[in-house]
Amino acid sequence: VIILGICIGVGVQQIKPQVVLKVNDTKLTMDDMMYPIYERESQYLSMDEMYQAYFGTSVWEASYMGTDSTVDSSMTNSVGLKQEIVNAETEYQVLYDEAVKADYKLTDDEKKQAVKQAEDALKGLSWLQKFQLAISKNKLTERFEKRILADRYKEDQQTELNKKVDEKEAIKDISKKDL
User: pLDDT tens digits for the chain (179 residues)?
Assistant: First the structure.
């Protein structure tokens, strides 16, 4: 009965995936968000038992302990981590879109790296977890390819912004009238 319910739920989601986030013209569905949610949950699940034993509360109800400085630390982990995921996915999508506009392409090594990351991510997951998370090697490879391209674009932009500027060279062609 439970498996039938899961199958029906996943089937409905596959027919008309629920859009949970729109970044520019890209619609991210719940399916797109399942792996990032799984990643964050995995980081905190091991602490939950300890939290319940020592503090009498779930780690999800504790004050936000994530890494996103834009998330208010007075929120619970449950709420704060949702916001952290939304922020991270928004950032990746914006960076990916900018990389595509700038004509960035994945190298063969980066493509291999994405496949390896997808294979590693799938290790240890049961078929039921893969089914529930709506993830496959192809979907994860595509996700990691986007992350790799977005990360490279971000790194290149940071390198460009951090370059030393020769002030005299930069202003030599500016007329005194423009100043």
Answer: 455 555 555 555 556 678 888 998 999 988 899 999 999 888 888 888 888 999 998 999 988 888 888 889 899 989 999 999 999 999 999 999 999 999 999 999 999 999 999 999 999 788 898 888 888 999 999 999 999 999 999 999 999 888 877 777 777 777 666 66
Burial label for 99, CB within 10 Å (0-12, 13-18, 19+), is buried
Looking up tokens 């190298």, which residue turns up?
A: 107
User: Checking DSSP bridges between strand 26-29 and strand 19-23, what pairing results, if any?
Assistant: antiparallel
Beta bridge partners of 26: 23
Instruction: Please give the Cα distance from 91 to 85 (Å, whole number).
Output: 10
Which residues on adjacent β-strands are paired with residue 21?
A: 28
Closest CA to 88 of 26, 36, 22: 36
Residue written as token pair 């996103």: 68
Residue with tokens 């300890």: 50
**CA–CA dist 4, 92 (Å, integer):** 35
Query: Half-sphere exposure of residue 147, counting CA atoms within 13 Å on the CB side?
Result: 16
How far apart (Å, rounded) are the C-alpha atoms in residues 81 and 68? 9
End-to-end CA, the chain: 75
Given a contact cutoff of 8 angstroms between Cβ atoms, the answer to whether 21 and 89 are in contact is yes
